[in-house]
Amino acid sequence: MHDKEIMSTIRLALSEKIGQQRFDLWFGRTTRLELNTQALTVLAADRFSLDWVRNHFRSDLEAVLTDIHQQQRLPCLPYVEFRVDQALRRLPTQPQSPLARPDSRSRSNSAQLSQQRKFSRLDRFVVGPSSRIAYSSCLTTAESPGSVSPLFLFGPHGVGKTHLLEGLWSSLRRTGQMKRLVYLSAEQFTGYFLEALHGSGLPNFRRKYRDADLLILDDVQFFSGKKATLIELLHTMDAVLRAGRQLVLAADRAPNDLLSLGSDIVGRMSGGLVCRIDLPDHASRREIARQMAADCKCNLSGSVLEHLAANFSGDARQIRGAINRLQASSQALGKEISLAFAKQCLEDVLRTTHRIVKMEEIEKTVCDVFGLEPRTLRSQRKSKSVSHPRMLAMWLARKYTRAALSEIGYYFGGRSHSTVVSAQKRVDTWITKGKPIELLDHCWTMEDALSKIENRLRTG
Question: What's the pTM?
Answer without folding.
Answer: 0.58
